[in-house]
Write a structure and sequence with these properties.
The protein is α/β, with parallel strands linked by helices. It contains 19 helices and 17 strands. The strands form three sheets. The chain has an eight-stranded mixed barrel with strand order 8-9-11-12-13-14-15-16, surrounded by four helices. A five-stranded mixed β-sheet has the order 2-3-1-6-7, with helices on both faces. A two-stranded antiparallel ribbon has the order 4-5. It binds ligand C2E and calcium ion (2 copies).
Length: 511
C-alpha cells in the first residue's frame, strides 16, 4: 500500500498523461521499494512498450501501404498514357505532348511536326487472318515505326490501325525524311507468327502553325493522310490549306449524295452486250449516273468511291437493283420490245457481299418483277471477291443457289490466277478493256487475246470482251472464237428512252 503524498503517485499520473498524449517512448521511474505501486508503474511501462511496438508496426504498415498506393497510382498514370496492345503511347499522351511541344515553340523554339499514319490493307488482314493475328500485326507495325524515330520522338497508336508520330522541334524537310523512312520500313514484309505479311501505309504530315490546338493539328494531319490515300496509297502528303477546301466539298457531296439516293436523282444508262457472231443483243449493263440539280450529269467514278467509303453504297445498290429489274420487266412485257431476249447486268460492290440481306433484296426484286433469277447477272470486280472472307463466300454461294448469274468484272487488271478462276462460283468473266486497247498497235496482243480466251474456256467459263470500239476489234475477237462483246462500237451507254427506241428500231448491233 502506498501512503498519502507518495511522490511516485504524482510521477505515475504524469507518466500516464504523457503516454496518453502520444509520447510512447516515455517511461515512469520505478523506486527501490518494489512494492505494489512499483508493480503498477512497471505494468504501465510494459503497456507503453507494447503500445510503442504496435504503433511502430502500424507506422511501418502505413508506410509500405503508401508506397504501394503510390506505385499503383504511377502505374495507372502510365496505363492512362499507354496503348496496351502495342505498348506505345495513346491518344491522350500524344495530346499532352503536343500541347507541351506547342508551348515550347511559343517560347521561341521550332514548331513540332505531326505525322499521321493509317495502314492500307489492315481490314483485309483482320478479316482474312483473324483478330489475334491483326493484333500481332499492329504490335509489329508499332515496333517498326519506333525503330525509325529518335528517342525524343513520340509514337502513339490512336486506335484501330491509326498511328501518330510527334517530332518535337523538327524542320519540314527532316520530318518528311522521317515519314519516308517509316513508309519504306512498312513497305517491306512483316514476319508475324510465322506468316509473311505485306501491309503498306498512307501518311499525312502537318507542321504546326503557332497557336494551333492539338485538335486542329490532328485534324489537318488526318486530312493530309486521307489525301495520300486518295492519291493511291503508300505515299506521304503534306497538309495544304487547299485540302481543307477539298474536304469541305467532299463532305457537301456526301450530304447531297444521300439526298440524291432517296430523292430520285439517280438515273440508269444502258449499254448492250452483243453476241459477236450474230450482232444480237444478249445482255444490257445498267450503269448509274447522278443527275445533279446544279452540276448536271455526274459519272459513277466520281461518286461510287465516296458511296463506298461512307456506306451509302448499300442504299445506292438497292436502288440500282430494283430500278434495273423493273426496267427489264417492262422491256420483256412491252409488245414493241419483247421480241428481244436478254439479261440485265448490274454492278455490285464488295460491301453488298458483306450484307446477308443482300440475298433477300435480290430475291425480292426478282419476285416482285416476276422474273427468272437467271435473267439477272451480277458483275463483281476481282478485288471485291479476292478480299474474300467467310461472309463473301456464303453470299456468293447463296446467290448462286438462287440462280442469278455471277460475273467477274474488269478481269485482267488484278489478281487473276487460274486456280482462282476455277475456285470462284462464277459462270462468266468480263475481260477488262485495257486488254483490247493495244490490239492493232502491239503485234503481241493478238496472241495474248487468244491465250486469255483459251484460259477462260479451259476453266469452263464464258467471256465478255469489254471496250470494243472499232469494227476491226469486233472482227478480230469474232475470228478468235470469242462469243460476246461490249463497247462504244456497238453502242455507248444510253438513257432509257433512247435505248428503248433502239430496241424497237433494230434487231442487230451496231445497226
Ligand atoms: P465498269 O463496270 O467496268 O463499266 C464499264 C465502263 O466502261 C462504263 O463507264 C462504260 O461507260 C465504259 N465503257 C463502255 N464501253 C466502252 C468503250 O468502248 N470504251 C471505253 N473507253 N469505255 C467504255 P461508267 O458508266 O463511267 O462506269 C464506270 C464504273 O462505275 C463502272 O465500271 C462500274 O465499276 C462503276 N459503276 C457504274 N454503275 C454502277 C452501279 O450501279 N453500282 C456500282 N457499285 N458501280 C457502278
Ligand atoms: Ca461492269
Ligand atoms: Ca469493266
Amino acid at each position: 500500500m502506498f501512503t498519502d503524498g507518495d511522490p511516485r503517485l504524482g510521477r505515475l499520473l504524469d507518466g500516464i498523461v504523457r503516454l496518453a498524449s502520444g509520447e510512447l517512448h516515455s517511461r515512469i521511474e520505478i523506486s527501490d521499494a518494489r512494492d505494489e505501486l512499483d508493480a503498477v508503474i512497471m505494468g504501465t511501462n510494459l503497456l507503453a512498450e507494447d503500445l510503442q511496438i504496435i504503433y511502430q508496426e502500424l507506422e511501418d504498415r502505413v508506410e509500405s501501404r503508401t508506397q504501394m498506393l503510390n506505385a499503383a497510382h504511377l502505374e495507372l498514370q502510365q496505363m492512362a498514357l499507354t496503348d496496351t496492345l502495342t505498348g506505345l503511347f495513346n491518344r491522350s499522351a500524344l495530346v499532352s505532348a503536343l500541347k507541351a511541344a506547342q508551348a515550347e515553340a511559343a517560347d521561341g523554339g521550332l514548331p513540332p511536326a505531326l505525322l499521321l499514319l493509317d495502314l492500307d490493307a489492315f481490314k483485309s488482314i483482320n478479316d482474312s487472318l483473324g483478330h489475334s493475328m491483326g493484333d500481332q500485326v499492329l504490335a509489329a507495325v508499332g515496333r517498326r515505326i519506333q525503330s525509325c524515330v529518335r528517342d525524343t520522338d513520340m509514337v502513339a497508336r490512336l486506335g484501330g490501325d491509326e498511328f501518330a508520330i510527334l517530332l518535337p522541334a523538327t524542320k519540314p524537310a527532316k520530318a518528311a525524311a522521317v515519314g519516308n523512312r517509316i513508309l519504306d520500313a512498312l513497305n517491306g514484309t512483316l514476319d508475324v507468327d510465322g506468316k509473311t505479311i505485306r501491309c503498306g501505309a498512307s501518311l499525312g504530315l502537318r507542321i504546326a502553325d503557332p497557336g494551333e490546338t492539338s485538335e486542329e493539328l490532328l485534324m489537318e494531319a488526318d486530312i493530309a493522310m486521307y489525301a495520300s490515300k486518295a492519291d493511291g496509297r503508300n505515299k506521304l502528303r503534306v497538309f495544304e490549306p487547299a485540302m481543307l477546301h477539298a474536304r469541305q466539298l467532299r463532305n457537301q457531296l456526301v450530304g447531297e449524295l444521300r439526298e440524291a439516293i432517296s430523292g430520285s436523282q439517280l438515273v440508269l444508262f444502258y449499254q448492250p452486250i452483243i453476241e459477236l457472231a450474230t450482232g444480237r443483243i444478249e445482255g444490257v449493263e445498267a450503269l448509274v449516273r447522278w443527275q445533279h440539280p446544279t452540276r448536271g450529269l455526274i459519272m459513277p467514278d466520281e461518286f461510287i468511291p465516296i458511296a463506298e467509303e461512307t456506306g451509302l453504297i448499300s442504299e445506292l445498290g438497292k436502288w440500282v437493283l430494283k430500278a434495273s429489274v423493273e426496267q427489264l420487266r417492262r422491256w420483256r412485257t412491252d409488245p414493241e420490245t419483247k421480241k428481244h431476249n436478254f439479261t440485265m447486268r448490274i454492278n455490285i460492290s464488295a460491301a453488298d457481299l458483306q450484307r446477308l440481306e443482300f440475298i433477300e433484296d435480290v430475291r425480292d426484286a426478282l419476285s416482285s418483277a416476276d422474273l427468272e433469277p437467271a435473267l439477272l447477272v451480277l458483275e463483281l470486280t476481282e478485288s471485291a471477291i479476292i478480299q474474300g472472307n467467310e461472309l463473301d463466300r456464303y453470299t456468293l454461294a447463296s446467290l448462286r443457289k438462287l440462280g442469278v448469274g455471277l460475273e467477274i468484272d474488269d478481269f485482267g487488271t488484278g489478281y487473276s490466277s487460274i486456280s482462282y478462276l476455277r475456285r470462284l462460283p462464277v459462270d462468266r468473266v468480263k475481260v477488262d478493256r485495257t486488254l483490247l486497247t493495244a490490239l492493232g498497235s502491239d503485234p503481241a496482243q493478238p496472241a495474248l487475246i487468244a491465250a486469255i480466251h483459251q484460259l477462260i474456256r479451259a476453266c469452263s467459263l464464258e467471256a465478255v470482251w469489254e471496250g470494243v470500239e472499232t469494227a476491226e476489234q469486233a472482227e478480230h475477237l469474232r475470228s478468235t472464237g470469242c462469243v460476246s462483246g461490249q463497247g462504244y462500237y456497238f453502242s455507248r451507254p444510253l438513257p432509257e428512252a433512247e435505248f428503248t427506241a433502239r430496241l424497237i428500231r433494230q434487231d442487230v448491233w451496231p445497226g
